[in-house]
Amino acid sequence: MKFRLLPLVAVLTFFAPALFAAGQPNELTPEEKAAGWKLLFDGKTTAGWVALGKTELTGGWVAEDGALKRVEKAVDIVTTESFTDFELTWDWNIEKAGNSGLKYNLPDPAKNVGFEYQLIDDIGHPDGVKGGRLHQTAGLYDLIEPSEEKKVNPPGEWNSSRLVVNGQHVEHWLNGLKTVEFEIGSEDLKARIAKSKYAKIAKFGEKAASPILLQEHGAKISFRSMKIRPLPAK
After folding, report:
1. Do 41 and 228 contact (CB within 8 A), yes or no?
2. Of the N and C termini of the chain, which has fewer Cβ atoms inside 10 Å?
3. Other residues' Cβ atoms within 10 Å of the Cβ of residue 203
4. Measured between alpha carbons, how far is 117 from 18 in angstroms, rounded to an integer?
């Protein structure tokens, strides 16, 4: 039997749909849809997001070039829907010397205090330097340092993050590597909270249904491909 090698262009054309369908920002694959994933940002509008404590989105945040961007002085924004157990993935791109964060498990949904997946220029922002690893990207801000094995792309480049809240178990991921893992309500976490800036905040660290919050911290930052999959309650 004789085999004929196809030209490279023909091979790429044949496989193109499979190669690139999953790589489009702000889109769900058929497999993701079947698994219960949904978009928190549609890639075109700010639908589903409001200013913290408000019923609409105020200035400073825009949907532009396929990203949800903080472009000028603004306020924290939150999803209009609350979540308890979930898996969340997103891409983010922060400016040099920038600082921001994604917060979840807010004890009071009307306030901006909760667990924070830190998003920061580790070596360009003072808090990332002076605060040490407790204040660096992909850590649980002020409570748990991110893994020393983490790989973060520099400011101006996209990073991919993942957050899992499954019962009492929580994981932070960055660019495919797990950076933080902890149990809500554990003695270790309670001890860390007692030594932190959150020590006197009522119900901080207890499991709660809350919106997802994107932090306004004076920096330009962009988000895209924000996908969430609710998990069965444990």
Report:
1. no
2. N
3. 11
4. 32
In whole angstroms, what is the distance from residue 51 CA to residue 17 CA?
Answer: 38
Angle at alpha carbon of residue 184, lines to 92 and 153, rounded to 5°? 20
Mean pLDDT in each 10-residue stretch from start to end of the chain (234 residues)?
42 37 82 98 98 94 98 97 98 98 97 98 92 96 97 98 98 98 98 97 97 97 98 89
pLDDT value for 23: 62
Amino acid at 220: K
Quick check: helix, strand or coil at residue 189?
helix
Q: Return the pLDDT at 129.
A: 85
Alpha-carbon gap, residue 43 to 159, rounded angstroms: 17
Rg (CA), the chain: 19
* Farthest CA pair distance, the chain: 77
Which residue's structure tokens are 């609409």?
56
Q: Is residue 13 within a helix (H) or strand (E), and if so which, with residue range?
A: helix 8-20
Torsion of CA 182, 211, 99, 169, to 10 degrees: 10
Q: How far apart are CA 210 and CA 204, in angstroms?
A: 12
